[in-house]
DNA sequence: TTGATTTGTTAGTCATGGCTAACTTTTTTA
DNA sequence: TAAAAAAGTTAGCCATGACTAACAAATCAA
């Protein structure tokens, strides 16, 4: 049981690939994740991905057959979850203590998540009194590496007349997040779907006495829980 | 006045070299800093240093003549001071809020100092209410890049009978810092030099009703202000 | 089922930042 | 002042992680 995985000798790049693969596999639960999808997600060429995947396979973080789909080993998942834990804890810290808005935190957390010190992250967790969710509503994995996916559906999946609560947003785009705040939405907002327009998939929603029309693309990035 | 130096495109390595050069020039105020001294300080080969210095010269951070000594431009100094500010603010944060001891902070701060976000560091500064000194007693440069050297002398420079106050310690060695704490010394400790032994340069010191013998090497890393 | 398209792989190149070994210049010292 | 030593430089190599271009395999669609 000489668990050397604690020494964590991974480079920033290796970490980024593992986290991306995890996010595609588990969070977006794409049935099959191939080389090119991963390349796309990371904005690198398929050749770069192929190369890195080869390395991660010899290091036992990734498994796949030639020309086959990619999967993570338990070791690979564990690394990814730790990165997500760090990322979300830092985002929470930046918002709650350093006056960052939710659209500003992701970029900086992308850097901070690669800092190597388990004491740092566990103490940060303790300092904030073990927060459960990050500023975008996502669940923060705990120190034991337990990972839970928030049960959520896209706002775009609702039918006319349905009522829901905003529980999370995709944190990838600064512009999207600014947009969400600007129209007055936030975590916990109650939203009613007034109308679903078939023509362009836009939907009309009501919240806090406001009525807004949003696009399908927008609604795909807003995650909700149905009410009643 | 299109100040592009704010964009700060420097790599971690480039930053490390600039900070090291600044520390040799200004903090240790070595009269002349050459290629090999810098290489030694950074634990890299003279060839690597030569290479990097060449690059930093074309980028206008460093000046030197062929076979001559190295110096920083104003731009180079400014980068270095910002790194030192970040380093010391993070060390302070780790000590004051995250239960790190003063021997644990340096290594993590070496990583954190390279995080690129001026908002992050200025907000961290504000959050801690603009601390003036880091856990090792050194002055933290302010947001305007003003850098001040703490007026300090080495404990080893004192004569028998002299009394002083410990105001700073070298933060480079974990073992040294642990040693300092273990024998009961800390910032602000009052120390009296009881005896200076010519044979091996060891000195006998008294503080808090304790008497200890310390080596010259130890006393070189303890910085004090003479009292009375 | 076969041809087109998509997906994955390989080869070869580049930039960065390390290294060693060999060389040149400068400085020291005898 | 001339060796010797030290300091600085150069050439050539390596690993990492990007890239493009060319090719092979798998999948989709007619
Ligand atoms: Mn994020
Ligand atoms: Mn998030
Ligand atoms: Mn330090
Ligand atoms: Mn550093």
From TrEMBL, chains A, B:
Transmembrane segments: none annotated. GO terms for molecular function: DNA binding; DNA-binding transcription factor activity; protein dimerization activity; transition metal ion binding. It is found in: Cytoplasm. Residues 10-73 form the HTH dtxR-type domain. PROSITE patterns: HTH_DTXR. InterPro entries: DtxR_MntR_Metal-Reg, Fe-transptr_FeoA-like, Fe_dep_repressor, Fe_dep_repressor_sf, FeoA_core_dom, HTH_DTXR, Iron_dep_repressor, Transcriptional_repressor_C. Gene3D superfamilies: 2.30.30.90, Winged helix-like DNA-binding domain superfamily/Winged helix DNA-binding domain. SUPFAM superfamilies: C-terminal domain of transcriptional repressors, Iron-dependent repressor protein, dimerization domain, Winged helix' DNA-binding domain. The keyword Cytoplasm applies. SMART domains: FeoA, HTH_DTXR. Keywords: Activator, Cytoplasm, DNA-binding, Iron, Manganese, Repressor, Transcription, Transcription regulation. Homodimer. Belongs to the DtxR/MntR family. This is Transcriptional regulator MntR. It comes from Aquimarina aggregata.
């Amino acid at each position: 049981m000489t668990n050397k995985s604690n020494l964590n000798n991974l480079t920033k790049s290796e970490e980024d690939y593992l986290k991306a693969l995890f996010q595609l596999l588990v969070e977006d639960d794409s049935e099959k994740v191939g080389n090119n999808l991963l390349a796309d997600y990371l904005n690198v060429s398929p050749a770069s991905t192929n190369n890195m995947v080869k390395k991660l396979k010899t290091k036992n973080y990734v498994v796949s057959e030639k020309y086959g789909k990619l999967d993570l080993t338990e070791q690979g998942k564990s690394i990814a979850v730790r990165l997500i834990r760090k990322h979300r804890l830092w985002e929470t810290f930046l918002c709650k203590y350093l006056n960052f808005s939710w659209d500003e935190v992701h970029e900086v957390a992308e850097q901070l998540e690669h800092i190597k010190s388990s004491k740092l992250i566990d103490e940060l967790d303790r300092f904030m009194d073990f927060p459960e969710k990050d500023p975008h509503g996502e669940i923060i994995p705990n120190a034991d590496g337990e990972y839970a996916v928030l049960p959520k559906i896209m706002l775009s999946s609702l039918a006319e007349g349905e009522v829901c609560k905003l529980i999370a947003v995709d944190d990838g785009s600064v512009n999207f997040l600014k947009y969400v705040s600007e129209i007055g939405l936030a975590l916990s907002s109650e939203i009613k779907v007034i109308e679903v327009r078939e023509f362009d998939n836009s939907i009309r929603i009501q919240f806090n006495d406001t009525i807004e029309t949003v696009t399908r693309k927008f609604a795909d990035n807003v995650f909700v829980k149905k009410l009643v």
